[in-house]
Every structure is written in C-alpha cells, then in structure tokens.
Amino acid sequence: MTTSVLTKTDMQPAADETTENTRDLVNALRGRVRGDVRFDGYTRMLYSTDASLYQIQPVGVVIPKRAEDVQATVEIAARYGVPVLPRGGGSSLAGQTVGAAIVIDFSKYMNDVINVDPAAKLTTVQPGINFAKLNAQVAHHGLMIGPDPASANRATIGGSIGNNATGSHSILYGMMADNVRDVRVVLSDASTAHFGPIDPNQLAALGKSDSLEGRIYAELPKIVHGVTEQILERWPKHWRRASGYNLDRLAAALLPPNERSKLSFDSRFRPPVADPMLIDKFNLAQIITGSEGTLGVMTEATVTLTKRPKMTGLAAVHFDKLIDSCVAIVDILETNPSASELLDKQVMDLARAQRIWAEKLHFVDGDPEAILLTEYYGETEEEVSKKLDHLIDTLRKRGWKGTIRKVLKKSEQADIWEVRKAGLNLLMSRRGDYKPVAGIEDVSVPQEKLADYLGDILDFCGKQDDIPNVAVYAHASAGCLHVRPLLNVKSARGVELLEAVGQHAANLAVKYGGAMSGEHGAGLARSALNPTIFGADLYTALQEVKRAFDPNNLMNPGKVVDAPPVTESLRMGPTYQTIELQTVFDWGQDGGYAPAIEMCNGAGVCRKLNSGTMCPSFMATREEKDSTRGRANALRNALAGRIPQDELFSPEMYDVMDLCLGCKACKTECPSAVDMAKIKAEYLVHYYREHGLPLFNRMMGLLPTINEMLYKTAAPLIPLVNAGMNSGLGKAFTKRMGIHPNRSLPAYAKETFEKWFLKNPSYQKANAPHGTVILFHDTWANYNEPHIAQAITKVLSAAGYHVQLASGRKCCGRPLITGGQADQARPWIDHNVALLAPLAEQGIPIVGIEPSCILTLRDEYLNLASDTEQAKKLAAGTFTFEEFVVNESESGRFTPAWKPNAGKALLHGHCHHKAMVGNDSTVAALAIAGYQVEVIQSGCCGMAGDFGFTEDHYEVSRTIGEERLFPAVRAADAQTVIVASGTSCRHQIGDFTERHPIHLAEALGLAVEE
Ligand SMILES: Cc1cc2nc3c(=O)[nH]c(=O)nc-3n(C[C@H](O)[C@H](O)[C@H](O)COP(=O)(O)OP(=O)(O)OC[C@H]3O[C@@H](n4cnc5c(N)ncnc54)[C@H](O)[C@@H]3O)c2cc1C
Ligand code: SF4
Ligand code: SF4
Questions:
Q1: Each residue's pLDDT tens digit, 368-417
Q2: Is residue 293 in contact with ligand 1, taking CB distance under 6 Å?
Q3: 106 in ligand 1 pocket by Cβ < 6 Å?
Q4: How far is the CA of 165 from the centre of ligand 1 (A)?
Q5: Atom 9, ligand 1: which residue's CA is nearest?
Q6: Whether this model's pTM surpasses 0.90
Q7: Which residue blocks in 37-109 are alpha helix, DSSP H?
Q8: What is the pLDDT of residues 975-1003, one digit of tens each?
Q9: Which of 475, 480, 494 is nearest to 436 (CA)?
Q10: What is the three-class DSSP state of 877?
Q11: What sign results for the dihedral spanned by CA atoms 913, 915, 916, 919?
C-alpha cells in the first residue's frame, strides 16, 4: 500500500506554505467568500481528476456565488502564493482542470443567463452555465449557440471558452474563439478587466495605464509584432486549433488585410466568419479563449448565437476501408455539408454489444470499417433531400461505391447523433487495462492532409510492440479525427509508448501544417509538445504572453507553456495498485471490484441535468460528490491507497455513497456502464460489517419474514396494525427507525394475494389454450397491494393463460441487497433459483409484478447465486409483465377482448425497468390495450425502494421528484390515467401530488372485457 497523502480533515499545504498558513488562507477565504470554501480531504480528492489520465490533489475548492467571490479568491490566493484553477464541468480530456491550486468551481452557482439580445444574436452568461441550459433558454427565439461539443450536456460555456471548444458543426460555426465577443475577467493580481473588440486608438490609450490590464494591452501588440514573420510562416495553417494562445487572431487584427491571407483564416474549407468584428478588431477575449485558465478567470462572457436549422438530413456513407473515408472527405466537403463525422468499426462493434445503443444502429448496413455521418441543413425536407441526392450523385461520379443511407426521419437522426456522441464513452467501456487513451486524440490537420496523417500515425502505431489496436472517430469534416491507440498505462511500456506516440504525432502535425489539439486543449497531456508545434521563437512568444498576464505564475500553472512531461502525475501509472476485497458479488466479468470502479473515466455524463435518469442525486444537489463520477473517484482513491486505507469505510466515504439511490441508471446511461448500484450494494456489506447494521436496514431486511408471521399469527389485528402505524405512537416508533414523519406507510391488505388466489380457483385453468404462466408474486403484491396481483391474474386468465403461483418462493432479496445485506440474501436467492430455474428450463415463463423484484432475478442473481448456470437459465425465462404481454402479443397469443376507447395514459417508467428493459414494452403494452400513451420524460421518482422514506433522504427525494415527474403528473387532466408499475414510484407520486397512479396490470384490467 502506498502512504496516504491526506486524511479526512487535513488541509494539505500548497507549495512551501505551512499547515498553519493554509488554515489562515482558509479563514481569509471564508471571511470574504459567500459561496462554499472546502479544503477537506474528500473534496480535494473529488476534484483531483477530470476526464483525463491525470490526477493531482488541489489545495482546496471554492464554489463561488458571485463575481466578488472570484475576485476575493484570486486576491487571497495570490497573497498566500497559491495558484488558482477555474473549473466548469471538469470534462476536459487533457488534464487542464487538475493541479495543485485552489479550484474555483463555477458549475454549481454561477450558471445563469444574464442577458439575451435576440436581434443582435448575442447572449451574456455566467461561465458555469452548460450548453443544454443555455440552448433551452434561447430556443424560443429560434436561436442556439453554434459550437456543439459532444460533451455539451454537462460542459459549461466558461470551460468551453477555456478550451476553445467546438464540435461536429465547426465547419459552419467555427470554434468558441469565433463566437466569443467579450469577457469579464479577474486578472492574476485580482484586478478586473473587460476584454472586447477595440479599435487602434482605444488600444493605444489602454496601453498607457499603469494597471496590469494596461501593461497587458501595451505588451501584447509588442509580442505579436516581434514574431509576425514567424506567425505568417510557422503558425499552424489549419483553423481548427486549440493549442497555444491565439496570437494569430491578434496578428490578424494588427496586420494589413493583404497580409492576412497567409494565416489560416483563408484556408480551404474554413467556416464562414459569422462576426467579422472577431477578426478585424483587436480583442483580448480572443486570447482568453483557449487559454485554459492560465491567463485570467472569467466571471462573465458574451457569445454569439446562431439560427437553429429548420430541417436536417443525414447520409450514412459507408466505407470498406477506414482510410478511404478520409480521402473521400474532400469530395464530401465540396457539397457543403453542415457536418461529416466519422464512426469506425470499433465504436460500431461496441455499440452493438449494449442494448440501448444496438437499437440505434439502424443506419448501419453490413460491417463497414467506417461510416461518414454527413449532415445537411435546409428550410424544407425537400431541400435537404435534394442535397443528400446531390451528395450521392457526387460520390458516385467520383467512384465511391459503398452504401449510402439517406436518413430524414427526425427520431432516426437523433439516434445517429446519440451514437456518435457516445463514441468516446463506448470506446472507454472496454473492460481491462488496455484503454483507448487520450494524448494524440486531438491532432488536427487541413482536411486535404487527413488521409496522409491518418495513414502515417496508424502505420507508426502498428509497428509498436504493445499497441493492440487504434480507435478512430469524430470530426473528419474539420480534419480533426480522434485517434486513440489502445495502451496500458499501468505498465512502464505503456507509459513509454504514450510519450513516444505523442512526440511522433506532434512531428506529423507540424509536417502537415496542423496542431496537436483541434478542440480538447493542451492541458497536461499536450502542453509539453507545444515547443514542437510552434518552434522555439513562437513558443518563447507564448511564454511572454503568459508572463504578461501572470508574472507570478499563479493561474493554472503548467498548462499551455512551461509544462511538465506528459508522463507525470498519471492517475493510474505503473505504480498504481489496489487492495483486494473479499467480495460478496462475483465481479469476474469486470476483472474485480476495483476494475469495475476504474471503468469510470471521468467523462462526466453523470453530471448532465434535466435529461435521462442518471444521476438523480447529482441533479438534486449539483454536488460532484453526489455524481456517479464522484462516488467512483472516492472509492478508487481509497482502494488505491491515495487516501488512507481505513478511509474506505469511514463515515465520510459512507456519506459519498449515501445519496446513491441504486436506480441503476448509470448501468445503462453511463456509456462506460459503471454499475454504481451494484458497487454500492457490495460496499455497504463491508461498511456495515465494520459499523453494524442500522435498525432501519435490519427492519427492511426482516420485512418479508415479519409480514409472513403477521398474517400467520395475527391476521385479525391487521386493521389495528394499519391504524397504529400512522398513529402518534406508531410515528414515534418509525421515527426512531429513521423514517420521516411526513411519509405515509404502506398499509397491509385485509387478505394476502396468496389467500385470494386459493379462494379463486377459476383463474387456474389447467387446460388454458396458451399454457401456464408462473406469477412471481412479490412481497408487496402479496401483503400490501394484492389488487395488482389480482389484476394481472384476471388479465392473464382472460387472455387464455393458466396462472400458477411461484409457491414456496422466498422474497427476491431486493431489500437485503440494497440495504447492505447482499450476503444474507444468498440463501433466498439460491432457494429461488433451485425452485424456479427448472420451470424456466421447461419453457414456462416466470412473470413479475414489481419491476425491481423480478429484474433482481435477471440482474443481481447472476452475480450472487451459488449456481451461476442455473441462475442464467432462470434469468432467461423471467419477464416483466409488459415484456410478457408484448412478446405474447407479437406471437399472436395474447389477444383478450378490449373495451373500445381505453383513453389516455401518462406513463412514468420505473428506473430499473428503464435501465434494463426500457420503456418501449410498457408503452407497447398500453397501446395494445387501446390507450393513447404519453411518456413522462422523468428521471427517477426519488423514492427508489426505501431510500426516500428516511429523514435524511426526504428532502433530496422530494427534490428529485419535483425535477420533472411531479410537475408532469400535476399537469395531467383528471381523465388521464397515470401509470407507474413501480411500488415506490406510485407511493412517491401519491405522497407529493393529488394523483394516485396505477400499475400497468390495473390499466390493462380496466381496458379488458371481463
Ligand atoms: C466524452 C467527451 C467528449 C468530448 N467532446 C468534445 C467535443 O466534441 N469538442 C470539444 O471541444 N471538447 C470535447 N470534450 C472536451 C471537453 O468536454 C470540452 O472541451 C468542454 O467544452 C469543456 O467544458 P467544461 O465545462 O467541462 O470545462 P472544464 O473541463 O471544467 O475546463 C476547461 C478549461 O477551461 C478553464 N476554465 C473553466 N472555467 C473557466 C473560467 N471561468 N475562466 C477561465 N477559464 C476557465 C479550465 O481551467 C480548463 O482549463 C469532450 C470531453 C469528453 C469527456
Ligand atoms: S460514471 Fe460514467 S458517466 Fe460518470 S464520469 Fe464516470 S464514466 Fe462518465
Ligand atoms: S445508481 Fe442511480 S443514483 Fe446511484 S450513481 Fe447510478 S445513477 Fe446515480
């Protein structure tokens, strides 16, 4: 084990400061900053990584609420000689947001739109706003922001300006530098400045001031003039560049127009310049853009907006050979597409292996090595269609013979873009130590040189001894292909190769007139290669820029210039080792518990807001700690000894895990398929072994047994028990167990479902035409909601099935698994497997009622059962009710008589069902019964089993529900049936709205003719 670098309370001193000094620093910050000041070990650990290969503990974290907080932080940090490091979503791939500095996180509070000027197509925003939120707020003007990084659902505008980010449509909208009009910054001496377009007179006047701002205005033109010739000759000739500071843009403003033609602004296939002012005027906002937080900290930015396209169409242009796609890109660009993105075979193969992505691959014909997803804009579908035909015509005339699929349907186009944007994460979903690493993934060359560059770099990688494969994807239309060699950086050879491949790629970039980064920035991964890219004179000029802005090197030092070697500070280098736990779950598929956690690459999809389900706790709190990434980082650091080993089961670590609702959304929505619900279930077993099981968990685990005893020995007392549970005394008892007093408790039914079933033999038609169905009547259905199990029985019977109970079954084990007693669940699991697997093997379907119960048989049983083979057989024969209805209906067997006009149904899908099956089968089942179905675009309901019942989770639980679900339920008209198949979802909706949802079976029961 390596030694600890922090304890839970320590305040790691920066540079030469003493601990006492650090405490003074913290106190000084707390005295001035209205936002959060956090220097505890956990926070620093959570902010020690981003989406890169690197890891460095920050000194502390400030989460500002206003510009004054930022200014105070920079001022106090400067006084103590501590660097600062601004951060947005922390989705950078090159390590630019990790460093031994005070991290200033803008994403939590400083994320508003300040002003929108639709006529001028400009908006002023706080830096922490993400693209999705900004676009939603300007959509009603028919506007959007042009650059569209694939990470836009969590990337912030500030971070994207910091990186000079862009995306698939850069050939239309350019990079952030083409869209940033002006910025307000806090400079390194804590003075503030407003950088925007200025004319030569203003420039001269501003340069006379004795302030830092004045000195910068005086110095920068001198630096540019000093290297004008080199800029004209040696500067990368390609416009798609996020390396270095944007000296070429300042040169463009200072040079006479006829000289500018030598700059990349006039290169072939350059995006049209939307705002000439950004080229014609001297504007230091252009130098801040792409500076990666090394020159100043932005507190506000004004960016241009663009018209949303009315109509789009896509062509999936197939190639048998990857390299051909890069040759063909020039032909494609001549047809003026809005984008042309490359998808290679590896991404397609990985997508095929995951259900939710495989469904979206409808545009792939056969097994091509590459597809160029080529898009056109237009005013009408006809216009777009003609453009697609023109593309096909052009390519055929030039001899390209592969399949070209025309896609005009909006939903299919959306699927295609989703697959494309998940490309990197899909690549990262590869299990094992060889990963498609970032490093050379962002080299960008003029499009005419793309095939040459790709050929050379693939050739070089192919000759190395330990690079089994290379993945290639992304922005072919901009000459910026993401090339990712598979490397094992946990080995010394892998690290050597990381460096060697990087240096070779940099040489090739220079040879072909390109840059090391086309959008992701330099960070720790590429800054050390800037001397190669720019040559000695220009690199010296870049260093002079840094010194002019930041004479004491306190703004995100070590990035862009004066960088450490690319092999320093690796998150998982050759010395990386983890401790082994004696696990309860079988983690063999992932290579172990630690490797399952290491699957988190930090890309931060779990920080998206208002869409999908992952991650409900982050959506509620906006805290890094409460994201899937935060949890994975915390556990990984403890397992790897980056924090003391005993921290693994400390209360602080528990706190990091606590708000995970176990919704399983990350299992599907995290493109690396990080299964935090399972990781947490394993974690809790070990945590409670050390700390003892809380009363609440003990009671939840015992509930199936208590219920059984209750009905066996005291059934007549059930009404009294129900009244008692909600009485003052009952509430006092449940409060002691940790249940929030506002929570209603599920009442017991007068009669169990099992008893009702025995009393109603008419449903057990042994000679039913469609055979037997085993109903897995879960604990809730048996004791609390027998009417739902009755509804299923009636519907199945009406449709001609013989219903048989899973008699003798034990509880599925769900409450034990989520409650930290997965080890205790094994006897029940083994019992159920032994009971039901032989029936499943005979082809008798086992159908569930509560999604989370029945899906436990399909999911956790595979990793917990003693007999894995039998568990697999059981899983294969187990279905949710909706799956069964749809499957049987498709094979023509499920055809009960339906009443006319079932009416409208508003559906909220259960998280586990969405994660493992999707909503489609529930929608289809309702449609079969004649309902007009609308799906609520909700995430988790917030209840998640027993999560939302407890006092400490109540508020988070409510916030999660209020995010999208409750407003949609409240807005539904009274005639609309609200359908939610999850017990906890129905309970949650019932507790916080006036509506009482029903199970799918009840909805079908209402619609079927008796
Ligand atoms: C899966 C994946 C796909 C990606 N796809 C793309 C893509 O298509 N195109 C693309 O360009 N990038 C892409 N990226 C990289 C990255 O997500 C983007 O560059 C993104 O725009 C960064 O935004 P962020 O808010 O996460 O910034 P951060 O990573 O938090 O910060 C980026 C830089 O900006 C600086 N910064 C942040 N806030 C400020 C501020 N207020 N003042 C000064 N400097 C500041 C930081 O110090 C840092 O140097 C991708 C990343 C991932 C993981
Ligand atoms: S948990 Fe998944 S989505 Fe979140 S950062 Fe890690 S890999 Fe990305
Ligand atoms: S299981 Fe749900 S709550 Fe837990 S980390 Fe995954 S998405 Fe977040």
A1: 999 999 999 999 999 999 999 999 999 999 999 999 999 999 999 999 99
A2: yes
A3: yes
A4: 7
A5: 149
A6: yes
A7: 41-46, 67-79
A8: 999 999 999 999 999 999 999 999 999 99
A9: 494
A10: coil
A11: positive
